[in-house]
Amino acid sequence: MFKGLKLAGLCIFGTEGIAAGELRRMGAENVSAENGRVVFDYSDKLLVRSNLRCRYCERIVLLAGVFKAITFEQLFENVRSIPWENITGKAGAFPVNGSSLSSKLSSIPACQKIIKKAIASRLMSKFKVSHCPEDGAIYRIHFVALKDTFSIMVDTSGEGLHKRGYRAQSMEAPIKETLAAVIADLAIIKSNHTVIDPTCGSGTLLIEAAMKAKNIAPGLHRTFACESWQQIDKELWRSERALAVEDIITDCGFHGYGYDIDDEAIALAKQNAEKAGVAACLHFEKRDIRDYSDHFDRSTVICNPPYGERLLDYKKAREIYTVMGKKFEKAPGKSYYIISPDEEFERYFGRKADKRRKIYNGKLKCQIYMYFKN
């Protein structure tokens, strides 16, 4: 029913290449990385598999149309030309939302109204009815207008893919699961890794690292909007979930250690690890960063230390960076991956990163500072 359309994984700016590589490994074809998204060929299997297994994408969408429009008439006609009868069917509900940036059609409510009207017009014409009942499955339409180019998308995920299901609660200023997974990817976490987070908070970085090491599909224990769509065979969902369970590495040698000065954070990290199914390979305890020590022959530190716009003032945050620089010694078998928005991080840490990666934590521009050379 969706033949001829494309799928797209929406992702954090700066992670498109990582997301593209993951989708190729899943079997996606004709993959292309664009700003904030990765586009690939549609198949029922890839629609299901990408929702279940994507660690780095925020959501998976059907890319229904991409076109230029500088008038509402052009917008209407372009949207109406999309084969909505094959997407929503006769009874599907199709709420519309979106955004507009640097476009002549800047009024979001007006664009919503025109897009809604165009879809309804197409459906009423094709099904020869006087109105659209919208009492069936929900097909959420999302548009992005950027420099007069409209992307019309249909959300297949529902809740964002960062909602893995293990983090019902979190401490103040948590890192998003998708970004935590990206950091674990950049740190090249393997199934035999020893990983430490000395400022672990509610444990997200370590949990994502453990899930990657054990190859646990992040969407295994949640549902998706497109599961209610009649176009997708229920048996395909069952078989893809069963395959994801088979692919879990059960004899994993991964070990993770999380430390924090907050008792509540440690308790929450333990609860989250239990829900995520990785508690057996993670250890959490109360410990100050000033007391940090690493007695392992080989280990990787991944951390999201508190900073000026998150929990602490800049002076205290930079004091922690200085402590980290002294505690995170340069030695064979040791590597460190630290995310921070502070452009002065390296100065206070005490040495230049071997590599840096610009990335966004929400709307906050950050760098991932990587230290791996000995």
Structure, explained:
The chain has 374 residues and is of the alpha/beta class. The protein folds into two domains: 6-155, VC0802-like, CATH 3.30.2130.30; 177-217 and 254-371, Vaccinia Virus protein VP39 (Rossmann fold), CATH 3.40.50.150. The protein is 31% helix and 23% strand. The chain has helices spanning 16-26, 44-53, 72-80, 108-127, 177-186, 204-214, 234-246, 263-276, 314-327, 345-349; strands at 6-11, 32-34, 37-41, 57-68, 96-101, 141-146, 149-155, 194-197, 255-260, 282-286, 299-303, 334-340, 355-361, 364-371. The strands form two sheets. It has a seven-stranded mixed beta sheet. Strands 10-9-8-11-12-14-13 form a seven-stranded mixed beta sheet, covered by helices on one side. The chain is elongated and about 75 Å long. The protein starts with 5 loop residues before the first strand and ends with a strand.
